[in-house]
C-alpha cells in the first residue's frame, strides 16, 4: 500500500496474530469488490471470487493471490459450489439501473445467496447496502434504496449471522458518486440545479468503507444487524460541490436551484455533463431526494476507529483527487457492465446461422518495433484519442449520450495499461493478448453487435505490421441500414485510424532515441490532427 497518498489504504493491522478466514467475494470486478479483495488478502485471509466471467479478473494485480470460480448469484448450483469451505461471504452485487425488473432480480439473487450460505454452514454474511432515511415509509423511497433495504432484510433473515453496512455517498477515486460530483463541479462554473442539492447527506471515504468491510469478517457470532457507516461531516449536496471547488482550487461556483427538475430530467442533465450515464444517474439522483444521515455509530464497538478516522470529507476528496492526478485509480464505477449494453463476446468460430457479418479490414506496414506499436495500441482512447477525425468520434459520443448511452466520456482508468473487462470510452475491453491483440466490444447504442480488433504483428520478412478489423453483426433491417449509412465514412475514420496509429508508433520510437523529446506522448500529434 502507498500510505497516506492512497485513498483505499485501510491501515489494516494484518492477520499475523490470528489464522486467516476463508472469504468469498461476489462483485470482485466492481468498484468496491475490486478494492476489497487485496485488503482481505493483506489482512491474512484466503479469498475466493465468484464471477460470471472469470477472465475479467485475470489482469488485476491481486489475481494470482486469489481463487476465482465461475458462477452467478442467481444460479443456486454455482453459488453452492463457491460457498464450500467458506467462513465469510461478502455480497457486493446489485442490479442498479438494470431495467424495470431490477428489484425482482435483486430479490431473487439475495434469496439464493442466503439459502446457499445457510446450507453451506457459512459463519457470516457481509453486505454493503444503502443508507435509508429515518421515518420515511419504504414505498416512498426510490426503487434503488428500497431494493437495497430489502436485500439487507433478506440476508438478515437468512439464519446466518449477517452484517449489513449502510452507506450514503462514497467518496473515492473512481466511484460513481465522486465522478458525478467532480464533473458537475469542474465543468459548470455556474449551474441550474434540482432541489435535491439542498438535501443533507453524510458521505464516507472509500477507505473507511473498506476498513469496516474487512473488520466485519471477525464480528462475534451473536451479531446479526445493520450498521450505519458515515464520515464525520453532514452537509448538503450544494455544500459538497462548493467544498469540492475549494479543495480542487477552483473559483467559487454559482448554483441556482430549480424545483421543477424531476429525477428523470436530473438524470439526463447529469448524463450530459458527467461520464455517468442516465441509466445509472437516475437511481443516484433519486436516492438524494431524502436526507441520508447516520443515526448511530455502533459499528465502532466491533470495528474500532483508529485515530484520524473516519476521514473528513475534505481529506477524502484530496486523497481521491491525488489518485486521479497521479493516474493511480485502482478500480472505477464503470468496471461493472452498463445496463442495456451488449455483452455478447465475439465467438471464436462464429456461427452466424445465415446472418450477415460486416467487416472492415485495414493493414499497413509500420516503421517501428512491435513493442512501440503495441504501446500505442494499448494507450488508445481517453485523453489519447482515437487517432482519426476527432470531430466524428465526438459527434458519435454525443449522439450516444442523447440516446441514453455511455458516450465517450468514461475515458480510461489508466493512461497506459488496460485490463480485460474494464471500460474504454464507449467500448469495453473484451480480450488482450499482451503485445499482440486488443479486442474491444462496443457499448454504444447500436442496432447490432460491434467489435474493434487491433493487432501488432511481424511478417516473414521481420517487418512490423498493424492489422485492424471492425466487425458488425446487424439486428434486423435497421442494423443493415445503419451499416450502409456509415460505410462511406469508414475510409476516413478507420483508414485514418490505421495510418495515424502507424505514424504514432514510428514517432514514439524515434522520440525514444532523443531524450529531449521523450516526454512527448506518441498520441500528442495524432490529437493535434
Structure description:
It is a single chain. The chain has 529 residues and is of the alpha/beta class. Helix content is 35%, strand content 19%. It contains 16 helices and 19 strands. The chain has helices spanning 31-42, 76-83, 102-120, 143-156, 176-187, 206-216, 237-247, 263-273, 278-287, 299-302, 313-325, 370-378, 390-402, 476-486, 490-512, 524-528; strands at 22-26, 46-51, 67-70, 88-91, 124-130, 162-167, 170-171, 190-193, 200-201, 204-205, 225-228, 235-236, 254-257, 358-366, 423-424, 427-433, 437-442, 448-458, 464-474. A seven-stranded parallel β-sheet has the order 3-2-1-4-5-6-11, with helices on both faces. Strands 14-19-18-17-16-15 form a six-stranded antiparallel β-sheet. Helix 3 (102-120) packs parallel to helix 4 and helix 5 packs across helix 7. The longest helix has 23 residues, at 490-512. It starts with 21 loop residues before the first strand and ends with a helix. Mean pLDDT is 84; it is low at 1-5, 348-354 and 523-529. It comes from Streptomyces chengmaiensis. InterPro entries: ComplexI_NDUFA9_subunit (IPR051207), DUF2867 (IPR021295), NAD(P)-bd_dom (IPR016040), NAD(P)-bd_dom_sf (IPR036291). Residues 27-169 form the NAD(P)-binding domain. This is SDR family oxidoreductase.
